[in-house]
Protein backbone atom coordinates (compact mmCIF):
# COMPACT_ATOMS: atom_id res chain seq x y z
CA UNK A 1 0.00 0.00 0.00
CA UNK A 2 1.47 3.32 -1.07
CA UNK A 3 0.35 5.22 1.95
CA UNK A 4 2.77 7.34 3.85
CA UNK A 5 1.79 9.42 6.81
CA UNK A 6 4.82 11.51 7.58
CA UNK A 7 5.54 13.36 10.74
CA UNK A 8 8.06 15.88 9.58
CA UNK A 9 10.62 17.80 11.44
CA UNK A 10 9.50 21.37 10.83
CA UNK A 11 13.00 22.39 9.79
CA UNK A 12 13.38 19.65 7.18
CA UNK A 13 12.95 20.50 3.56
CA UNK A 14 10.22 18.37 1.97
CA UNK A 15 12.25 17.34 -1.05
CA UNK A 16 9.41 15.69 -2.88
CA UNK A 17 7.29 18.79 -2.89
CA UNK A 18 9.92 21.40 -3.45
CA UNK A 19 11.26 24.04 -1.19
CA UNK A 20 8.25 26.33 -1.32
CA UNK A 21 6.45 23.90 0.97
CA UNK A 22 9.06 23.86 3.70
CA UNK A 23 7.08 23.88 6.92
CA UNK A 24 7.74 26.69 9.31
CA UNK A 25 7.71 26.39 13.05
CA UNK A 26 4.01 27.34 12.99
CA UNK A 27 3.25 23.92 11.66
CA UNK A 28 5.17 21.81 14.16
CA UNK A 29 2.13 19.80 15.12
CA UNK A 30 1.05 18.77 11.67
CA UNK A 31 0.92 15.16 10.55
CA UNK A 32 1.60 15.70 6.90
CA UNK A 33 0.18 13.17 4.49
CA UNK A 34 1.86 13.80 1.19
CA UNK A 35 2.09 10.56 -0.71
CA UNK A 36 -1.40 9.24 -0.29
CA UNK A 37 -2.98 8.27 -3.59
CA UNK A 38 -6.35 9.98 -3.99
CA UNK A 39 -9.47 8.69 -5.70
CA UNK A 40 -12.00 11.22 -6.98
CA UNK A 41 -15.55 9.99 -7.49
CA UNK A 42 -17.00 11.40 -10.70
CA UNK A 43 -15.94 11.76 -14.30
CA UNK A 44 -16.53 15.48 -14.88
CA UNK A 45 -14.50 18.63 -15.23
CA UNK A 46 -14.18 19.29 -11.49
CA UNK A 47 -12.29 16.02 -10.99
CA UNK A 48 -10.03 16.85 -13.91
CA UNK A 49 -9.29 20.30 -12.53
CA UNK A 50 -8.54 18.75 -9.12
CA UNK A 51 -6.21 16.26 -10.78
CA UNK A 52 -4.44 19.07 -12.65
CA UNK A 53 -3.64 20.76 -9.33
CA UNK A 54 -2.61 17.45 -7.73
CA UNK A 55 -0.12 17.00 -10.57
CA UNK A 56 1.70 20.09 -9.33
CA UNK A 57 2.27 18.36 -5.99
CA UNK A 58 3.27 15.03 -7.55
CA UNK A 59 0.19 13.41 -6.05
CA UNK A 60 -1.22 10.26 -7.56
CA UNK A 61 -4.86 10.77 -8.47
CA UNK A 62 -7.33 8.54 -10.27
CA UNK A 63 -10.95 9.27 -11.04
CA UNK A 64 -13.88 6.88 -10.95
CA UNK A 65 -16.72 7.05 -13.44
CA UNK A 66 -19.67 6.11 -11.28
CA UNK A 67 -21.97 5.02 -14.08
CA UNK A 68 -19.55 2.64 -15.75
CA UNK A 69 -17.46 1.93 -12.61
CA UNK A 70 -14.42 2.57 -14.82
CA UNK A 71 -11.24 4.08 -13.50
CA UNK A 72 -10.29 7.20 -15.45
CA UNK A 73 -6.99 8.93 -15.80
CA UNK A 74 -6.21 11.63 -13.26
CA UNK A 75 -2.48 12.08 -12.80
CA UNK A 76 -1.40 8.45 -12.73
CA UNK A 77 -0.68 6.61 -15.96
CA UNK A 78 -2.22 3.42 -14.67
CA UNK A 79 -4.22 1.61 -17.33
CA UNK A 80 -5.00 -1.67 -15.59
CA UNK A 81 -8.43 -3.17 -15.33
CA UNK A 82 -10.63 -1.64 -12.65
CA UNK A 83 -10.44 -3.67 -9.48
CA UNK A 84 -12.84 -2.77 -6.70
CA UNK A 85 -10.52 -4.00 -3.96
CA UNK A 86 -7.97 -1.40 -5.06
CA UNK A 87 -10.33 1.34 -3.96
CA UNK A 88 -10.03 0.19 -0.40
CA UNK A 89 -6.41 -0.96 -0.33
CA UNK A 90 -4.69 1.63 -2.47
CA UNK A 91 -6.30 5.02 -2.03
CA UNK A 92 -5.60 6.78 1.25
CA UNK A 93 -8.28 9.40 0.58
CA UNK A 94 -11.49 9.14 -1.39
CA UNK A 95 -13.17 12.40 -2.29
CA UNK A 96 -15.96 13.38 -4.70
CA UNK A 97 -16.50 16.04 -7.31
CA UNK A 98 -20.27 15.74 -7.00
CA UNK A 99 -22.62 15.39 -4.08
CA UNK A 100 -25.36 13.32 -5.65
CA UNK A 101 -23.77 9.89 -5.62
CA UNK A 102 -25.73 7.00 -7.13
CA UNK A 103 -27.42 4.52 -4.85
CA UNK A 104 -25.23 1.53 -5.75
CA UNK A 105 -23.58 -1.25 -3.71
CA UNK A 106 -20.17 0.16 -4.62
CA UNK A 107 -21.04 3.61 -3.26
CA UNK A 108 -22.45 2.02 -0.09
CA UNK A 109 -19.18 0.18 0.44
CA UNK A 110 -17.15 3.32 -0.27
CA UNK A 111 -19.21 5.20 2.30
CA UNK A 112 -18.22 2.60 4.92
CA UNK A 113 -14.51 3.05 4.16
CA UNK A 114 -12.43 5.00 6.70
CA UNK A 115 -10.74 6.67 3.73
CA UNK A 116 -14.00 8.19 2.48
CA UNK A 117 -13.68 11.76 3.66
CA UNK A 118 -16.52 13.91 4.91
CA UNK A 119 -19.01 11.12 5.54
CA UNK A 120 -20.90 13.43 7.92
CA UNK A 121 -21.25 16.20 5.37
CA UNK A 122 -22.40 13.77 2.71
CA UNK A 123 -25.03 12.43 5.11
CA UNK A 124 -26.32 15.77 6.32
CA UNK A 125 -26.08 18.06 3.29
CA UNK A 126 -27.16 16.03 0.29
CA UNK A 127 -30.88 15.99 0.80
CA UNK A 128 -32.18 19.56 0.70
CA UNK A 129 -34.55 19.01 3.63
CA UNK A 130 -31.70 17.57 5.76
CA UNK A 131 -29.53 20.53 4.74
CA UNK A 132 -32.20 23.07 5.67
CA UNK A 133 -32.81 21.22 8.97
CA UNK A 134 -29.09 21.45 9.75
CA UNK A 135 -29.00 25.17 8.93
CA UNK A 136 -31.97 25.75 11.24
CA UNK A 137 -30.33 23.67 13.99
CA UNK A 138 -27.15 25.73 13.73
CA UNK A 139 -29.29 28.90 13.59
CA UNK A 140 -27.69 29.88 10.30
CA UNK A 141 -29.99 32.15 8.27
CA UNK A 142 -31.80 30.49 5.38
CA UNK A 143 -35.07 31.11 3.51
CA UNK A 144 -38.21 30.01 5.41
CA UNK A 145 -39.13 26.55 4.15
CA UNK A 146 -41.22 23.44 4.64
CA UNK A 147 -41.23 19.85 3.39
CA UNK A 148 -43.97 19.29 0.84
CA UNK A 149 -45.81 15.96 0.96
CA UNK A 150 -49.16 17.07 -0.37
CA UNK A 151 -50.80 19.90 -2.27
CA UNK A 152 -52.46 20.86 1.04
CA UNK A 153 -49.07 21.45 2.77
CA UNK A 154 -47.96 23.52 -0.17
CA UNK A 155 -51.16 25.57 -0.12
CA UNK A 156 -50.96 26.18 3.59
CA UNK A 157 -47.29 27.37 3.31
CA UNK A 158 -48.28 29.44 0.30
CA UNK A 159 -50.90 31.21 2.41
CA UNK A 160 -48.09 32.91 4.37
CA UNK A 161 -45.53 33.09 1.57
CA UNK A 162 -47.19 34.37 -1.61
CA UNK A 163 -44.27 33.51 -3.86
CA UNK A 164 -42.50 30.20 -3.54
CA UNK A 165 -39.57 28.40 -5.00
CA UNK A 166 -40.27 24.68 -4.89
CA UNK A 167 -37.28 22.36 -5.19
CA UNK A 168 -36.70 18.64 -5.38
CA UNK A 169 -34.95 17.40 -2.27
CA UNK A 170 -32.36 15.55 -4.34
CA UNK A 171 -30.73 15.75 -7.71
CA UNK A 172 -31.92 19.17 -8.90
CA UNK A 173 -29.20 21.50 -10.11
CA UNK A 174 -28.62 24.24 -12.67
CA UNK A 175 -32.27 25.23 -12.48
CA UNK A 176 -33.57 21.69 -12.92
CA UNK A 177 -36.00 20.30 -10.34
CA UNK A 178 -37.20 23.76 -9.44
CA UNK A 179 -40.59 25.46 -9.83
CA UNK A 180 -41.61 29.07 -9.26
CA UNK A 181 -45.04 29.03 -7.71
CA UNK A 182 -47.67 31.57 -6.91
CA UNK A 183 -51.28 30.99 -6.02
CA UNK A 184 -52.37 30.44 -9.61
CA UNK A 185 -49.84 27.92 -10.74
CA UNK A 186 -49.64 25.32 -8.01
CA UNK A 187 -50.67 22.73 -10.56
CA UNK A 188 -47.39 23.13 -12.51
CA UNK A 189 -45.71 20.66 -10.15
CA UNK A 190 -45.97 17.04 -11.32
CA UNK A 191 -48.06 14.95 -8.91
CA UNK A 192 -45.40 12.25 -8.59
CA UNK A 193 -42.95 14.78 -7.07
CA UNK A 194 -44.91 15.30 -3.86
CA UNK A 195 -43.06 13.75 -0.92
CA UNK A 196 -39.72 14.61 -2.55
CA UNK A 197 -40.00 18.40 -2.41
CA UNK A 198 -39.34 21.39 -0.24
CA UNK A 199 -40.92 24.81 -0.67
CA UNK A 200 -39.01 27.98 0.12
CA UNK A 201 -40.23 31.49 0.41
CA UNK A 202 -38.98 33.47 -2.58
CA UNK A 203 -36.33 35.90 -1.34
CA UNK A 204 -36.05 39.34 -2.88
CA UNK A 205 -32.32 39.47 -2.60
CA UNK A 206 -30.02 42.38 -3.40
CA UNK A 207 -27.50 40.08 -5.04
CA UNK A 208 -26.25 36.52 -4.92
CA UNK A 209 -22.88 35.91 -3.32
CA UNK A 210 -20.92 32.76 -2.61
CA UNK A 211 -17.96 31.92 -0.50
CA UNK A 212 -15.51 29.08 -0.93
CA UNK A 213 -13.29 27.95 1.91
CA UNK A 214 -11.11 25.05 2.92
CA UNK A 215 -10.48 23.33 6.24
CA UNK A 216 -7.79 20.79 7.04
CA UNK A 217 -7.73 18.07 9.70
CA UNK A 218 -6.17 20.48 12.18
CA UNK A 219 -9.21 22.71 11.84
CA UNK A 220 -7.23 25.42 10.08
CA UNK A 221 -9.40 27.31 7.58
CA UNK A 222 -8.71 29.52 4.57
CA UNK A 223 -11.30 31.52 2.69
CA UNK A 224 -11.61 33.02 -0.72
CA UNK A 225 -13.19 36.43 -1.13
CA UNK A 226 -16.92 36.59 -1.75
CA UNK A 227 -17.88 36.12 -5.39
CA UNK A 228 -20.93 37.86 -6.81
CA UNK A 229 -22.91 35.47 -9.00
CA UNK A 230 -25.35 36.13 -11.80
CA UNK A 231 -27.74 33.32 -12.73
CA UNK A 232 -30.11 32.93 -15.63
CA UNK A 233 -32.80 30.24 -15.49
CA UNK A 234 -31.15 28.89 -12.34
CA UNK A 235 -27.77 28.43 -14.08
CA UNK A 236 -24.67 30.37 -13.04
CA UNK A 237 -23.66 32.56 -15.97
CA UNK A 238 -20.90 34.69 -14.52
CA UNK A 239 -19.10 35.44 -11.26
CA UNK A 240 -17.31 38.62 -10.28
CA UNK A 241 -14.71 39.03 -7.57
CA UNK A 242 -14.07 42.65 -6.71
CA UNK A 243 -11.23 44.23 -4.86
CA UNK A 244 -13.27 46.29 -2.43
CA UNK A 245 -15.38 43.61 -0.82
CA UNK A 246 -17.31 44.83 2.19
CA UNK A 247 -15.18 43.44 5.06
CA UNK A 248 -18.20 42.93 7.30
CA UNK A 249 -19.97 40.89 4.65
CA UNK A 250 -16.79 38.89 4.08
CA UNK A 251 -16.52 38.10 7.79
CA UNK A 252 -20.19 37.14 7.83
CA UNK A 253 -19.61 34.71 4.94
CA UNK A 254 -16.52 33.23 6.56
CA UNK A 255 -18.36 32.80 9.85
CA UNK A 256 -21.26 30.96 8.20
CA UNK A 257 -18.94 28.67 6.29
CA UNK A 258 -16.59 27.98 9.16
CA UNK A 259 -19.43 27.10 11.52
CA UNK A 260 -20.68 24.54 9.00
CA UNK A 261 -17.22 23.09 8.33
CA UNK A 262 -16.42 22.89 12.03
CA UNK A 263 -19.76 21.31 12.92
CA UNK A 264 -19.29 18.67 10.22
CA UNK A 265 -15.59 18.15 11.10
CA UNK A 266 -15.02 18.77 7.42
CA UNK A 267 -11.80 18.51 5.43
CA UNK A 268 -11.43 19.99 1.96
CA UNK A 269 -13.21 22.74 0.09
CA UNK A 270 -16.81 23.65 0.79
CA UNK A 271 -18.90 26.31 -0.93
CA UNK A 272 -21.86 28.27 0.40
CA UNK A 273 -24.19 30.13 -1.95
CA UNK A 274 -25.95 33.05 -0.29
CA UNK A 275 -28.52 35.72 -0.91
CA UNK A 276 -27.52 39.17 0.26
CA UNK A 277 -30.53 40.80 1.89
CA UNK A 278 -31.00 43.97 3.92
CA UNK A 279 -30.38 41.85 7.01
CA UNK A 280 -27.13 40.34 5.75
CA UNK A 281 -26.36 36.98 4.22
CA UNK A 282 -28.89 34.17 3.97
CA UNK A 283 -27.70 30.71 2.91
CA UNK A 284 -29.29 29.35 -0.24
CA UNK A 285 -27.27 26.19 -0.70
CA UNK A 286 -24.21 24.40 0.63
CA UNK A 287 -21.97 22.22 -1.56
CA UNK A 288 -19.41 19.85 0.01
CA UNK A 289 -17.01 20.22 -2.91
CA UNK A 290 -15.24 22.62 -5.21
CA UNK A 291 -17.75 24.89 -6.89
CA UNK A 292 -18.36 26.62 -10.21
CA UNK A 293 -18.45 30.01 -8.50
CA UNK A 294 -14.88 29.35 -7.32
CA UNK A 295 -13.43 28.83 -10.80
CA UNK A 296 -12.29 32.49 -10.97
CA UNK A 297 -9.58 31.48 -8.46
CA UNK A 298 -7.62 29.64 -11.17
CA UNK A 299 -6.62 33.04 -12.49
CA UNK A 300 -7.32 35.39 -9.60
CA UNK A 301 -5.14 33.86 -6.89
CA UNK A 302 -2.21 31.50 -6.54
CA UNK A 303 -4.30 29.53 -4.02
CA UNK A 304 -7.07 28.29 -6.27
CA UNK A 305 -9.92 26.18 -4.90
CA UNK A 306 -8.60 22.95 -6.45
CA UNK A 307 -5.18 23.38 -4.83
CA UNK A 308 -6.83 24.21 -1.50
CA UNK A 309 -8.93 21.03 -1.64
CA UNK A 310 -5.87 18.87 -2.30
CA UNK A 311 -3.84 20.58 0.41
CA UNK A 312 -6.64 20.27 2.96
CA UNK A 313 -7.14 16.60 2.11
CA UNK A 314 -3.47 15.91 2.63
CA UNK A 315 -3.45 17.89 5.86
CA UNK A 316 -0.93 20.31 4.44
CA UNK A 317 -0.84 23.88 5.71
CA UNK A 318 -3.38 26.25 4.23
CA UNK A 319 -2.57 29.88 3.46
CA UNK A 320 -3.24 32.22 6.36
CA UNK A 321 -4.61 34.85 4.05
CA UNK A 322 -5.37 34.71 0.38
CA UNK A 323 -4.29 37.50 -1.88
CA UNK A 324 -6.27 37.88 -5.07
CA UNK A 325 -6.79 40.00 -8.13
CA UNK A 326 -10.20 41.23 -9.22
CA UNK A 327 -11.46 38.59 -11.64
CA UNK A 328 -14.49 37.74 -13.74
CA UNK A 329 -15.53 34.22 -14.67
CA UNK A 330 -17.86 33.69 -17.61
CA UNK A 331 -19.42 30.24 -18.02
CA UNK A 332 -19.55 28.89 -21.57
CA UNK A 333 -22.89 27.18 -21.83
CA UNK A 334 -24.23 25.13 -24.74
CA UNK A 335 -21.72 26.58 -27.22
CA UNK A 336 -18.90 25.34 -29.42
CA UNK A 337 -15.21 25.88 -28.82
CA UNK A 338 -13.67 28.77 -30.69
CA UNK A 339 -9.85 28.52 -30.95
CA UNK A 340 -9.67 32.29 -31.56
CA UNK A 341 -10.53 32.83 -27.89
CA UNK A 342 -6.96 31.75 -27.19
CA UNK A 343 -5.59 34.84 -28.87
CA UNK A 344 -7.38 37.23 -26.51
CA UNK A 345 -5.24 39.00 -23.91
CA UNK A 346 -6.01 38.91 -20.18
CA UNK A 347 -8.14 35.76 -20.35
CA UNK A 348 -7.66 32.14 -19.41
CA UNK A 349 -9.73 29.61 -21.34
CA UNK A 350 -10.91 26.36 -19.75
CA UNK A 351 -12.64 23.85 -22.00
CA UNK A 352 -14.02 20.59 -20.64
CA UNK A 353 -14.00 18.52 -23.84
CA UNK A 354 -17.61 17.39 -23.42
CA UNK A 355 -20.07 16.72 -26.21
CA UNK A 356 -22.28 19.69 -26.98
CA UNK A 357 -25.73 19.81 -25.40
CA UNK A 358 -28.14 22.65 -24.89
CA UNK A 359 -27.67 24.22 -21.46
CA UNK A 360 -24.53 22.15 -20.75
CA UNK A 361 -21.50 23.76 -19.10
CA UNK A 362 -18.85 23.35 -21.81
CA UNK A 363 -16.10 25.50 -20.35
CA UNK A 364 -15.41 28.83 -18.72
CA UNK A 365 -13.33 31.93 -19.33
CA UNK A 366 -11.48 33.62 -16.49
CA UNK A 367 -10.91 37.30 -17.13
CA UNK A 368 -8.36 39.50 -15.42
CA UNK A 369 -10.43 42.41 -14.14
CA UNK A 370 -7.53 44.06 -12.35
CA UNK A 371 -7.54 47.16 -14.54
CA UNK A 372 -9.91 49.23 -16.65
CA UNK A 373 -7.53 48.63 -19.51
CA UNK A 374 -7.72 44.84 -19.25
CA UNK A 375 -11.52 44.91 -19.09
CA UNK A 376 -11.71 47.24 -22.05
CA UNK A 377 -9.36 45.04 -24.11
CA UNK A 378 -11.26 41.89 -23.25
CA UNK A 379 -14.59 43.40 -24.20
CA UNK A 380 -13.14 44.59 -27.48
CA UNK A 381 -11.30 41.41 -28.41
CA UNK A 382 -13.49 38.69 -26.93
CA UNK A 383 -17.01 39.96 -27.56
CA UNK A 384 -16.82 39.58 -31.39
CA UNK A 385 -15.78 35.94 -30.89
CA UNK A 386 -18.84 35.00 -28.83
CA UNK A 387 -22.39 34.11 -29.83
CA UNK A 388 -25.12 36.68 -29.18
CA UNK A 389 -26.06 35.36 -25.76
CA UNK A 390 -22.51 35.11 -24.40
CA UNK A 391 -21.63 38.47 -25.96
CA UNK A 392 -24.47 40.09 -24.01
CA UNK A 393 -23.43 38.31 -20.79
CA UNK A 394 -19.83 39.47 -21.23
CA UNK A 395 -21.03 43.02 -21.84
CA UNK A 396 -23.22 42.91 -18.71
CA UNK A 397 -20.45 41.36 -16.63
CA UNK A 398 -17.90 43.99 -17.65
CA UNK A 399 -20.33 46.91 -17.34
CA UNK A 400 -21.57 45.75 -13.92
CA UNK A 401 -18.05 45.38 -12.65
CA UNK A 402 -18.21 48.16 -10.14
CA UNK A 403 -17.07 48.27 -6.55
CA UNK A 404 -19.16 46.24 -4.12
CA UNK A 405 -20.76 48.42 -1.47
P1 LIG B 1 -30.51 26.45 -6.37
O1 LIG B 1 -30.76 25.30 -7.28
O2 LIG B 1 -31.14 26.32 -5.03
O3 LIG B 1 -29.07 26.82 -6.29
O4 LIG B 1 -31.20 27.71 -7.07
C1 LIG B 1 -30.77 28.22 -8.31
C2 LIG B 1 -31.08 29.69 -8.36
O5 LIG B 1 -32.49 29.91 -8.21
C3 LIG B 1 -30.45 30.51 -7.25
O6 LIG B 1 -29.12 30.84 -7.54
C4 LIG B 1 -31.36 31.72 -7.22
O7 LIG B 1 -31.09 32.58 -8.32
C5 LIG B 1 -32.71 31.10 -7.44
N1 LIG B 1 -33.37 30.75 -6.15
C6 LIG B 1 -33.28 29.58 -5.50
N2 LIG B 1 -33.96 29.62 -4.34
C7 LIG B 1 -34.49 30.83 -4.26
C8 LIG B 1 -35.30 31.51 -3.29
N3 LIG B 1 -35.72 30.91 -2.16
N4 LIG B 1 -35.65 32.80 -3.54
C9 LIG B 1 -35.26 33.43 -4.66
N5 LIG B 1 -34.50 32.85 -5.62
C10 LIG B 1 -34.12 31.59 -5.43
Walk me through this protein's architecture:
- With 405 residues, the chain is an alpha+beta fold.
- It has three domains: 36-116, 3-Layer(aba) Sandwich (Rossmann fold); 144-201, ATP-grasp fold, A domain (Dna Ligase, domain 1), CATH 3.30.1490.20; 207-399, D-amino Acid Aminotransferase, Chain A, domain 1.
- Helices cover 26% and strands 24% of the residues.
- The chain is built from eleven helices and 17 strands.
- The protein has helices spanning 45-56, 84-89, 105-112, 119-124, 128-137, 151-160, 247-263, 297-300, 305-313, 372-382, 388-399; strands at 38-41, 61-65, 70-73, 93-96, 145-148, 164-168, 178-181, 197-201, 207-215, 221-223, 227-232, 235-241, 268-277, 280-287, 327-333, 347-351, 361-368.
- The strands form three sheets. Strands 9, 10, 11, 12, 13, 14, 15, 16 and 17 form a nine-stranded antiparallel beta sheet that branches. The protein has a four-stranded mixed beta sheet with strand order 3-2-1-4, covered by helices on one side.
- Helix 1 crosses helix 9 (305-313) and helix 10 runs antiparallel to helix 11 (388-399).
- It is globular.
- The termini are far apart.
- It binds adenosine monophosphate.
- Adenosine monophosphate binds at residues 143, 165, 167, 172, 175, 178, 200, 202-203, 208, 231, 234, 273, 284-285.
- Residues 143, 165, 167, 172, 175, 178, 200, 202-203, 208, 231, 234, 273, 284-285 line the site of adenosine monophosphate.
Amino acid sequence: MLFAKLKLNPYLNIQILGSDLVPTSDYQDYDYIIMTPILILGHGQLGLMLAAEAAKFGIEVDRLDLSSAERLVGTSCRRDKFDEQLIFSHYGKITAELEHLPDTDLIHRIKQSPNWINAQAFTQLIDRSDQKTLLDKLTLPTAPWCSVDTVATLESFNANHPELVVKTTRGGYDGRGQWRVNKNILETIPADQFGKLIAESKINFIRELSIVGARNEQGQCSFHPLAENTHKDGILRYSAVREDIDPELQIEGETLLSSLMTHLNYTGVMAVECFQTDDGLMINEVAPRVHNSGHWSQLGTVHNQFALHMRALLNLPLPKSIEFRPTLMLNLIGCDFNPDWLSVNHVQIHWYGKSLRDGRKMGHINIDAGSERALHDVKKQLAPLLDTEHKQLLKDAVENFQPCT
